[in-house]
Amino acid sequence: VRRYFRYHREFVEGNTLYDTLERMKKIVEKAGVDPKDRSVVLPAREAAEDARRRKNDGKGCKGVFCGAAIEIFLDSDKTVIVTGKNSSLLYAESAAILNAAKIIANIPDEVDVISPNVIQSIIQLKNLMRLSSTSLDVKEILNALAASAVSDEKARKCIDALDKLKDCEMHTTHLINEGNEKTLNQIGLNLTTDARLPFPDETFAPNYFI
Question: Is residue 147 part of a domain?
């Protein structure tokens, strides 16, 4: 199934032919497998739709609503799927990573683990550099965690929890930028994506390819 999503992404990026994607689709169908059965696919899509519904609460960014989901292991036989939504502050992938780390570290969702001063400093720097987006990507959120961990034990616990994300499954609804993908791979996540393009879509329901 991960290979099927990879071929679809390569097709979206113009790196493989439609005939190749169709052949892969037939292989998946012959095997009796539905890509939607991948545990993190539907939760990621549901997170994107929830972001759309909560746009008045600050979810989504510039009319684009993205979702990400990670399946984490809490013990040998219990898994939990954690989601993240994009906003003007965080990429969906960044939100999912932060939420997963907090759950593994047993830190309540409402507790802030990153210093607001650190976040503000990063945003100011991005504005100064005239970057197109001030949303914090995965590497930036990890750097913010590291900076906060100097004086906050909760942030330190979140950093320690990142090691437990290795070999976990992750899915995103939108095409992942190169920087986020590199960092997620370094963490060791098994990543797939619907590879939707980041165009404003608040006026119509998204059409997923499967």
Answer: yes
Domain shared by 26 and 70, yes or no: no
- Residue whose pair of structure tokens reads 């991960």 in the numeric block: 2
Which residue, 51, 14, 21, 47, is CA-closest to 35? 21
Of 204, 206, 8, 189, residue with least CA distance to 97: 189
Residues 74, 156 within the same domain: yes
Number of domains in the chain: 2
- Neighbouring-strand partners of residue 73: 79
The span from the CA of 98 to the CA of 42, in Å, is 20
For residue 83, give the 3-state DSSP assignment.
strand
Q: Could you tell me if 59 and 86 are in contact, meaning their C-beta atoms sit under 8 angstroms apart?
A: yes
pTM over 0.85: yes
pLDDT digits (tens, 9 = 90+) for 39-89: 999 999 999 999 999 999 999 998 999 999 999 998 777 899 999 999 999
Tell me how crowded residue 200 is: count the other CB atoms within 10 A of its CB: 12
Q: Kindly report the CA angle at 168 between 18 and 38, in degrees rounded to 5?
A: 45
Structure tokens at 80: 């939990």
Query: Whole-angstrom Cα distance, residue 159 to residue 115?
Result: 14
- CB-CB contact of 175 with 73 (8 Å): no
Q: What is the DSSP letter of 176?
A: P
Q: Which residues contact 90 (CB under 8 A, 6 or more apart)?
A: 84, 98, 135, 136, 141
